[in-house]
Amino acid sequence: MKILVGGTGKMGQLIASTAIAQGHTVVGMMDAFHLDELPGMEKADIIVDFSHRDNLPWICEYVTRNDCSLVYGTTGLNDQMKEKLYILSKTHPVFFAANFSYGVAVLQELLKVATPLLKDSFDIELVETHHNQKQDAPSGTAKAILEILNEGKNFEEVYGREGMTGARGKEIGVHALRGGTEAGEHTVHFFGNHESITITHHADNRQIFVDGAMRAVAFLEDKEPGLYNMRDLLFK
Fold first, then answer.
1. For residue 76, which of 41, 56, 60, 141 sits 20 to 30 Å off, Cα-Cα?
2. Which residues contact 125 (CB under 8 A, 6 or more apart)?
3. pLDDT score at 50
4. What residues does CATH 3.40.50.720 cover in the chain?
5. Distance between CA 111 and CA 198 in Å, rounded?
6. Contact, 67 vs 90, CB < 8 A?
7. What is the structure's pLDDT at 76?
8. What is the pLDDT along the chain (236 residues), one digit of tens a residue?
9. Is there a contact between 183 and 207 (Cβ–Cβ < 8 Å)?
10. At what angle do helices 140-149 and 102-118 cross, to 10 degrees?
11. Cα–chain-centroid distance for residue 48?
12. Are 209 and 101 in contact (CB under 8 A)?
């Protein structure tokens, strides 16, 4: 397929090199600072973007104008931006996920089974760790996990603790660690009486996210318009 890569940083470069190694054609790498180069580029079949949410407007415009597909993995979106992707998916195939790791997708399925069995008698804490250049906190993946842990919004979500907090109530603690070159780790702790369960996913490097994006590229080929995610990929 002919791929346009959103972003020119480390992640964009890794997406481009992986796509080429798999036999795809990369027609260009683009961000908001290089939009004047777009008219001269070959038309893409699909955009893969893991860059910055500020690129979303021109990406949606490009998809609409050129009738192509979109694999979108940028995090930190507000509700209006998510709505923009939803509207785009009405007319074009859009694959959107906060995390493109296959292992994280499996982790989320495990939590959908474990959480209903444990939430009434175990305390729940969520910890995520990322590199020191990470822009948003908590991570998009942590937010997606929190939606599973707190389905129905029956727990207060407490972001870090400080001072005289007293005994915990009906809450889920959420903690974001930042440092070094950590690619990403997400851990859910279930603390019970004299026992605990910990479920962790650790990413050694960013290649796993790019591999997931390439799975999504293959998945979207010949797909009808719609909003797809990693669960669709798991159970295709």
1. 41
2. 172, 173, 174, 175, 188, 189, 191
3. 93
4. 2-96+207-234
5. 11
6. no
7. 83
8. 999 999 888 899 999 999 999 999 999 998 866 677 777 788 999 999 999 899 999 999 999 999 999 999 998 889 999 999 999 999 999 999 988 999 999 999 999 999 999 999 999 999 999 999 898 899 989 999 999 999 999 999 999 999 999 999 999 999 999 999 999 999 999 999 999 999 999 999 889 999 999 999 999 998 999 999 999 999 98
9. no
10. 30
11. 13
12. yes
| Other Cβ atoms within 10 Å of 202 Cβ, number | 12
Q: What confidence score (pLDDT) does residue 98 get?
A: 86
Report the alpha-carbon distance of residue 141 to residue 99 in Å, rounded.
6
Catalytic residue numbers? 130, 134
Mutual angle of helices 207-220 and 10-21, in 10-degree steps:
50
Which residues neighbour 99 within 8 Å (Cβ) at sequence distance 6 or greater?
73, 105, 139, 140, 141, 144, 184, 209, 212, 230
Kindly report the CATH number that applies to the domain delimited by 2-96+207-234: 3.40.50.720
Hey, what amino acid is at 227?
L
Segments of the chain assigned to CATH 3.30.360.10: 102-203
Please enumerate in sequence order all residues whose Cβ is within 8 A of that of 118, keeping only pairs 6 or more positions apart, or say none: 124, 190, 192, 197
* Number of CB atoms found within 10 A of residue 49's CB: 24
Say how many Å lie between the first and final Cα of the chain, rounded.
Answer: 21
Cβ-contact 190, 197 below 8 angstroms: yes
**DSSP label at 166?**
-
Helix, strand, coil percent content, the chain, rounded in steps of 5: 40, 25, 35
Which two structure tokens, joined as six digits, stand for 148?
A: 């599973």
pTM: 0.84
